[in-house]
């Protein structure tokens, strides 16, 4: 049986009197690629913050790699990339390689220097995201899409089993979004890294993801991609709150 990496059991959360999450049950297992979709304000980022331990649930339990979140110590097993990562201006004084190596700080220690092996790991991570030729470039000189690839490399350098991303393509121009997702697909299929991806790009991502979870305060659907595709657009629209018409790729292109 596959290991369960994330296990949310009956999770609930409120901001003041406002219920944001209600009775969330979700399991992400090793090697799976989950798309977490839902309209604006549906609680996606809040759920991610709870999974990362940044917010405590008011109800229910979250377990990571089989351990309750309070006792889970192997943080390096989880890489996180947010939508706000790609915000450096052109004068930011750090090279791409330095940014990626900063992902090893937890392992190496804050005031210790990096070894040659750390540097090799950082370059390997840059190769995986096809950014090794930019290793000496200034991070601020790269496009938003290139910066996000570097942040994926920083998340990968600790060799995580699970990558969590909250709308990582915000700020990436449309022509680079498809190649960004195809890189995520390689990470999942070739490197076996499980992915939990929050996105609004439902047509693109649900072609790639193995599983889909539809959230609007509670989970309205969660399951394998083909079951999601077989759902009626009207059912999806009813919980989404506005009409949703999905574009299905022709079978031979999938
Ligand atoms: N710090 C906060 N204090 C009070 N309410 C908040 C706070 N953060 C978020 N909310 C509210 O909680 C609800 C869920 O927000 P959340 O950011 O989780 O949604 P989301 O699905 O990620 O939205 P989006 O797709 O627009 O990013 C929203 O109604 C939001 O206004």
Automatic annotation (TrEMBL):
- Highest taxon above the source species: Bacteria
What the entry lists under PROSITE patterns is as follows:
ABC_TRANSPORTER_1 (PS00211), ABC_TRANSPORTER_2 (PS50893)
Occurrences of domain ABC transporter (ranges) = 6-241
Q: Which keywords fit this entry according to its UniProt record?
A: ATP-binding, Nucleotide-binding, Transport
Among InterPro entries, the record links this protein to: AAA+_ATPase (IPR003593), ABC_transporter-like_ATP-bd (IPR003439), ABC_transporter-like_CS (IPR017871), Metal_Ion_Import_ABC (IPR050153), P-loop_NTPase (IPR027417)
Q: Which Pfam families match?
A: ABC_tran
Q: Name one GO molecular function term.
A: ATP binding
Q: Which family does it belong to?
A: Belongs to the ABC transporter superfamily.
Q: What is this protein called?
A: Metal ABC transporter ATP-binding protein
In its UniProt entry, the species of origin is given as Sporosarcina oncorhynchi
């Amino acid at each position: 049986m596959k290991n369960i990496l994330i296990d949310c059991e009956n999770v609930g959360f409120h901001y003041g009197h406002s219920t944001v999450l209600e009775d969330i049950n979700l399991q992400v297992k090793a090697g799976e690629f989950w798309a977490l979709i839902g309209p604006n304000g549906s609680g996606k980022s809040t759920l991610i913050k709870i999974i990362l331990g940044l917010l405590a649930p008011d109800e229910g339990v979250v377990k990571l790699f089989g351990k309750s979140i309070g006792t889970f110590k192997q943080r390096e097993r989880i890489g996180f990339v947010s939508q706000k990562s790609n915000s450096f201006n052109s004068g930011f004084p750090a090279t791409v390689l330095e940014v990626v190596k900063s992902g090893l700080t937890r392992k190496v220690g804050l005031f210790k220097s990096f070894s040659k092996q750390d540097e090799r790991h950082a370059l390997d991570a840059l190769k995986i995201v096809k950014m090794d030729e930019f290793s000496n470039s200034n991070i601020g000189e790269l496009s938003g899409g290139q910066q996000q690839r570097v942040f994926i490399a920083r998340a990968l350098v600790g060799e995580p089993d699970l990558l969590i991303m909250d709308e990582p393509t915000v700020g990436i121009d449309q022509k680079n979004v498809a190649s960004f997702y195809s890189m995520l697909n390689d990470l999942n299929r070739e490197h076996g890294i499980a992915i939990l991806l929050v996105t609004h790009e439902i047509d693109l991502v649900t072609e790639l993801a193995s599983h889909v979870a539809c959230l609007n305060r509670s989970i309205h659907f969660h399951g394998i991609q083909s079951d999601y595709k077989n759902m009626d657009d009207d059912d999806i629209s009813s919980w989404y709150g506005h009409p949703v018409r999905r574009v299905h790729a022709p079978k031979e292109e999938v």
